[in-house]
Amino acid sequence: MSNTDTPDHAATATTAPAPLSNSGGSRVVVAACPSYSPDAVEAALTEVLDALGGLETLVKPGQTVLIKPNLLCPRRPEEAVTTHPELVRQMIRMCVKAGAARIWVGDSPAGLHAEKDLWSRTDMTTAVEGTPAELKSWDTKQTPVPCGDDLLAVPEWFTQVDVVISLPKLKTHSLTTMTCALKNVFGITSGLAKSKFHAKYPSPLTMSTFLVGVFAALRPHVSIVDAVTVMEGLGPANGRPRPLGVLLASRDAVALDAVACAPLRIPPASVPMIRLAAARGLGEMDLSRIECTGTGVPQLNATRMKPSLARYLRYIPEPMFRVTTRLFQLRPRIQERQCVKCGICAGVCPRHAIATQPRSGYPAVNPKECIVCFCCMESCPRGAIAVQLYLGSMVRLAQRVGKVVSPQ
Ligand code: SF4
Ligand code: SF4
User: Whose alpha carbon is nearest atom 6 of ligand 1?
Assistant: First the structure.
């Protein structure tokens, strides 16, 4: 990576870095990785990094590296909500070999979770055990990063990071269709501020536009996607784990997300984040201009993931989003059998639409205030919040109407 291509994180506190150049073309490597066994992950990671020129072209001796997995909330690795610890562990080993002086691991979850609980349930504690890597806290002094009209807050230590290695989890997403390389960067911003942005940008299109701005401000040097087991259906927190058996990697996160659309059977341009990021020159989404190689390509193309609720929501015309979701009674539903009454969902709700019921102690959603941002679902450590969709047939009607009103 040339100097002009290198995101300067020390500079982000005052100004956003220039977009990555794609003049050399975009390359995505897909390696077969049939399981999370150490040998399988090491082999797949070696394949993708070698194909991208070797880790030593990214990490120089003496540098500080941030390994940024997706740690959405404290859920077990087998639930496929978070990046698997074996990928983090193998990545740490390779950074040690490359001579990194400091290796930091971390992510800011959705909602106010105790970091020790987050690290322990996601097995990040085990991932760093016996290595020189350090789990970094977001509960520390923050520094501002400009992002359009907004100011993001990131931990002050982030300005000391030389290289960011993003390790997203491939999942469906009810608002943004999918979460992969582009969206993983949002986790660098701190805590509850994330849900406030959900309130400010409540529709799929406005949120996607904002997320592309976040990516432009905080983009990583390389993204390596955990798609060994992915999440399909009601992602990013309530879907079903599904084996896919690959790792994907690229320095171009837009190209990576475009290639990752294959198992969803959707064109990259139908995902607002990908379309908007490509339009801003942040990467390549045209599959005919992306060089895609690796032992996992056949497996990626042969797999079919069930889509999320976004397959309906994307057809709702932008100005009608709020009124339509209300009309269709789309809202979160607390599943009391799974709920442990921790109150995290109420704390994360940017509209204060969740209150504890005085008699039962369970949370309840006020539908008049709910903007269907899905923050509560993403933050629930027990997966106890589902989507209520009584009027499913009307949603399908919206899909048909939307096709007429705003064809994409
Ligand atoms: S639904 Fe229950 S378990 Fe989930 S965050 Fe809310 S209070 Fe906690
Ligand atoms: S109750 Fe509604 S507004 Fe509040 S976090 Fe959940 S989805 Fe968002």
Answer: 345
DSSP labels for 35-86? S--HHHHHHHHHHHHHHTT-GGGT--TT-EEEEEE---SS--GGGTSS--HH
CA distance 286 to 356: 48
pLDDT tens-place string over residues 141-155? 999 999 999 999 999
Q: Are 59 and 99 in contact (CB under 8 A)?
A: yes
Angle between helices 193-200 and 204-218 (to 10 degrees): 140
Q: Judging by beta carbons within 10 Å of its beta carbon (0-12, 13-18, 19+), is residue 253 exposed, middle or buried?
A: buried
Q: How far apart are CA 16 and CA 217, in angstroms?
A: 5
Note whether 332 and 269 are within 8 A (CB): no
pLDDT in tens, 83-117: 999 999 999 999 999 999 999 999 999 888 899 99
With 0-12 CB in 10 A as exposed, 13-18 as middle and 19+ as buried, what is 363?
buried
Per-residue pLDDT reduced to its tens digit, 243-301: 999 999 999 999 999 999 999 999 999 999 999 999 999 999 999 999 999 999 999 99
User: Domains in the chain and their CATH numbers?
Assistant: 3-302 (3.40.50.11440), 310-405 (3.30.70.20)
Give the rounded distance of the alpha carbon of 17 from its chain centre: 21
For ligand 1, is residue 290 a contact (CB within 6 Å)?
Answer: no
Is the ipTM higher than 0.95? The answer is yes
- In angstroms, the CA 38 to CA 28 distance is 23
Q: For residue 364, report the distance from its CA to the centre of ligand 1, in Å.
A: 10
DSSP, res 25: -
DSSP 292-342: EESTTHHHHHH--PPP-THHHHTTS-GGGHHHHHHHTT-EEEE-TTT----
Contact between 49 and 93 (Cβ < 8 Å): no
User: d(Cα 380, Cα 228) in Å, to the nearest integer?
Assistant: 24
Atom of ligand 1 lying closest to residue 335 CA = 1
- Per-residue pLDDT tens over the stretch 126-137: 999 999 999 999
